[in-house]
């Protein structure tokens, strides 16, 4: 029986049991995609990642990302968390300030700031595209969410596809009680992993409130979602919506499910989206899986 190092961490928080949990198989050599999918399904985390040696000299490590039912080319909290575990497990240098992650979406730059409990990891999201929804689809989405949009929603692809929905202000975001069955049907039909909603907050803690719903993938509400936050930033940048937030802002996500995570977003001069935050180790052990 093969033994493999295994970690469970919380991402987008420095405090255990908040943020978004992530399972990381540190020693994944010898596992094929079907076996990885089986493990991810068994662990039943929103995402499980598998660390591997890179296949190109330009990368420092490789990661494969799985939900319980499918592999993803990119996801935000698994990318931030995998970089953290790669550093703390010795797969890459623990004092690295920059790294390059290889994943199915390509080579993604990683920036590290701070030390120990103050360390924050920022990953550049893949290039994104945005398509408008038809009026009929937008109306159906609004009805499923029980929301009123302040501008037309979009379908943003940055690896996964997200339906991005601007509700204007945080009270509208916090109050949502979506019809998950109808929402699952809509996101599945539109090829999206889920719908993310957002609005400005004036609480002095964060600039934006975010929620992400993925019922078609078996996750009614995801606690803290890097790719969704990156999709929102792309949507705002593409439609001159960053004035209300600036090019660097902080998003609050997860309060409604008891997680209260914090996501740092930066839109650089070239329009590239960087997603970052803190991580903390919660469980460390050994997986006995061939």
| Beta-strand share of residues | 35-45%
Portion in helices: 10-25%
At the fourth level of CATH, the homologous superfamily of the largest domain is Diaminopimelate Epimerase, Chain A, domain 1
Shape: globular
- The top-level CATH class of the largest domain is Alpha Beta
Tally of DSSP β-strands = 18
Return the CATH topology of the largest domain: Diaminopimelate Epimerase, Chain A, domain 1
- Mean pLDDT level: 96
Which terms would index this structure?
290 residues, alpha+beta, Diaminopimelate Epimerase, Chain A, domain 1, 6 helices, 18 strands, globular
Tell me about this structure.
- The protein is built from six helices and 18 strands.
- By secondary structure, it is an alpha+beta fold.
- Helix content is 22%, strand content 38%.
- The termini are close together.
- The longest helix is centred in the N-terminal third of the chain and has 13 residues, at 76-88.
- It has helices spanning 33-43, 76-88, 135-145, 170-174, 180-189, 226-238; strands spanning 3-11, 20-25, 48-52, 61-66, 71-72, 98-103, 106-113, 120-124, 129-132, 154-157, 161-169, 194-200, 208-214, 219-222, 248-253, 261-267, 273-277, 279-288.
- The model has no long low-confidence stretch (mean pLDDT 96).
- It has two domains: 3-125 and 277-288, Diaminopimelate Epimerase, Chain A, domain 1 (Roll), CATH 3.10.310; 129-271, Diaminopimelate Epimerase, Chain A, domain 1 (Roll).
- The protein has an 18-stranded mixed beta sheet that branches.
């Amino acid at each position: 029986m093969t033994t493999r190092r295994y970690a469970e961490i919380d991402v987008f928080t420095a405090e255990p049991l908040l943020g978004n949990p992530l399972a990381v198989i540190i020693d994944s050599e010898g596992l094929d995609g079907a076996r990885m999918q089986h493990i991810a399904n068994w662990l039943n985390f929103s995402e499980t990642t598998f660390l591997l040696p890179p296949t190109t000299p330009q990368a420092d490590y490789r990661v494969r990302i799985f939900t319980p039912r499918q592999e993803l080319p990119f996801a935000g909290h698994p990318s931030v968390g995998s970089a953290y575990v790669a550093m703390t497990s010795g797969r890459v240098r623990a004092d690295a300030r920059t790294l390059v992650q290889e994943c199915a979406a390509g080579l993604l730059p990683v920036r590290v700031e701070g030390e120990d409990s103050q360390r924050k990891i920022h990953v550049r999201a893949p290039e994104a595209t945005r398509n408008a929804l038809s009026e009929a689809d937008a109306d159906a989405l609004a009805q499923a969410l029980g929301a009123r949009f302040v501008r037309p929603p979009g379908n943003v692809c940055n690896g996964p596809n997200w339906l991005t929905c601007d509700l204007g202000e945080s009270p509208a975001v916090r109050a949502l009680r979506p019809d998950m069955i109808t929402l699952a049907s809509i996101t599945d039909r539109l090829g999206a992993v889920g719908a993310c909603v957002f609005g400005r907050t004036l609480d002095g803690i964060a600039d934006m409130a975010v929620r992400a719903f993925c019922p078609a993938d078996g996750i009614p509400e995801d606690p803290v979602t890097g790719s969704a936050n990156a999709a929102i930033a792309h949507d705002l940048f593409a439609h001159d919506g960053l004035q209300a937030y600036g090019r660097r802002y902080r998003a609050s996500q997860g309060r409604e499910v008891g997680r209260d995570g914090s996501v740092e977003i930066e839109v650089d001069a070239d329009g590239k989206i960087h997603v970052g935050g803190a991580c903390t180790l919660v469980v460390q052990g050994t997986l006995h899986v061939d």
